[in-house]
Design a protein that fits this description.
The structure is a single chain. The chain is of the alpha+beta class. It folds into two domains: about 10-105, no CATH class; about 110-305, Umud Fragment, subunit A (Ribbon). Helix content is about 30%, strand content about 25%.
Length: about 300
């Protein structure tokens, strides 16, 4: 038998964010209809519609207030605008608090990012939306890079998120070497602390998941292991990228990162070492993936796919 208890989250949102003049009546009506046989989908739709109306009214009143304050009649109407602003704050402060908490949560605890490039192929594809754990490396003051707690340090194999030193764009790369490590590359073969990575043919089926433009570059998938988390990398013989460097000793507070797509990635070979304070989170899984080659239809095989 179906439970007659309505979704608690919708009730909570209606109590705080619904139209102020009849919140209790609206909640009562919705719960009564639900108990008569309405589906949870209907209950959600009614709740979100009511909240949408409240937000629309808030924006309308805000627009009117701004027009009053900054319009030609501002000197005459400013006295009447103040009570209206107070009423606006009283009626819709719940909406403001909800949005502020949501944005603060995304900034300091967990977030999702969209991947527009193939620098992490084949592990991450263009169109993936990644879940990012931001508190694992220490809690931050929301909207800043100031740490409240330090948390864990990134380890070899972690897929990390950090802003590009060039333009601030969020980059997604894999940690290859941590402070104190010595890293070098010779002909695409990585060496960390004197240990050379092992390479073997990767899963050729991953080539079919790449975008058509990448497949046209005759890519090769190799499995890389022995210097951290085993994972597949992509080589593009038709594209040049630095394949020999080092050895480089990673100083304290810095990290050496590479893209899994070794021949098409703006990583530490180009932007230098990444400071610990700039690393804002660890990508853990794909939430959803939209295929640019298929009119952004979802890739069902990548739904909630783990990155490790």
């Amino acid at each position: 038998m179906r439970s007659l208890k309505p979704p608690t989250l919708v009730v909570w949102m209606l109590e705080r964010l619904g139209p102020q003049y009849r919140r209790q009546a609206l909640i009562g009506d919705c719960v009564e209809e639900f108990q008569r046989g309405r589906s949870k989908a209907w209950f959600w739709s009614q709740g979100l519609r009511a909240i949408g109306v409240a937000v629309a009214w808030a924006l309308r009143d805000l627009g009117r207030w701004l027009a009053t304050v900054f319009g030609s009649a501002a000197p005459l109407r400013s006295a009447r605008a103040t009570p209206r602003l107070r009423r606006y704050w009283r009626d819709y402060r719940g909406v403001a608090a909800f949005l502020l908490l949501m944005l603060g949560f995304r900034s300091a605890w967990a977030d999702w990012v969209s991947v527009p490039t193939g620098s992490m192929n084949p592990t991450i594809l263009e169109g993936d939306r990644l879940l990012v754990d931001k508190h694992v490396y220490g809690l931050r003051v929301p909207f800043t890079l100031i740490h409240v707690t330090w948390g864990e340090d990134p380890t070899r194999g972690d897929i990390v998120i950090f802003p590009s030193p060039a333009d601030g764009t969020l980059l997604v790369k894999r940690v290859i070497a941590i402070p104190g490590d010595t890293v070098a590359m010779n002909g695409e073969r990585l060496t960390v602390n004197g240990v050379t990575a092992r390479y073997a043919p990767g899963d050729a089926r991953e080539l079919q998941t790449l975008l058509a433009a990448t497949q046209a570059q005759h890519p090769t998938v190799l499995g890389e292991s022995g210097i951290g988390v085993a994972h597949d990398i992509l080589l593009l013989p038709d594209r040049w990228a630095p394949s020999t460097f080092g050895p480089i000793v990673v100083p304290k507070g810095k990290y050496f990162v590479l893209g899994d797509n070794r021949d098409n990635s703006e990583d530490s070979r180009f932007i230098g070492l990444v400071p610990r304070r700039s690393i804002i989170g660890r990508a853990t899984r794909v939430l959803v993936s939209l295929n640019p080659d298929r009119w952004y239809l979802p890739r069902s095989t990548r739904l909630l796919k783990s990155l490790y």
